[in-house]
Amino acid sequence: MRKITLLVVHCTATPCNVPLPPELLDRIHRQRGFNGCGYHFYITTDGDIHPMRDIRRTGAHAAGHNACSIGIAYEGGLDPAGKPADTRTPEQRETLRQLLRTLRQTYPDARICGHRDLSPDRNRNGIIEPSEWLKLCPCFNAAEEYADITAQSET
Ligand SMILES: [Zn+2]
Hints:
It is globular, with a radius of gyration of 15 Å. Helix content is 23%, strand content 17%. The relative contact order is 0.22. Strands 4-3-5-1-7 form a 5-stranded mixed beta sheet. A two-stranded parallel sheet has the order 2-6. It has a single domain, classed as Peptidoglycan recognition protein-like (Lysozyme-like), CATH 3.40.80.10. By secondary structure, the chain is α/β, with parallel strands linked by helices. It is built from 4 helices and 7 strands, in the order E-E-H-E-E-E-E-H-E-H-H. Zinc ion binds at residues 10, 115, 137. It comes from Phocaeicola intestinalis. Pfam families: Amidase_2.
């Protein structure tokens, strides 16, 4: 197994009122030239988890960080008008938290972050600030929301 140091949370950046079935997500990523879906897990608005890529395989979701990470995406991230928003349903929130907790137990060295937190720290102050975000993905502060899980040490 490869070494996992990051659990990266994404949104699909699609309008939350337009369904994106796992098969379509897979097809879109293949059309982009990926060898299958770039994320390892996909959580649809109903809260179901869809395994998309074997976690032993390197993903295609966070440039420069794929080798040591697992990518998890929730369906949505844009409001019906197409504006970036935290569109997670209660079911998605619950599933996402549970999945991260489980993965963290398997990979106790892994830190949880959002895709936007992997943007370059251009002013080198050690903080990835909103002005430095290359993307808004996943449209909420994943590092902060799941800080309690990242802080848990293995017993
Ligand atoms: Zn992303």
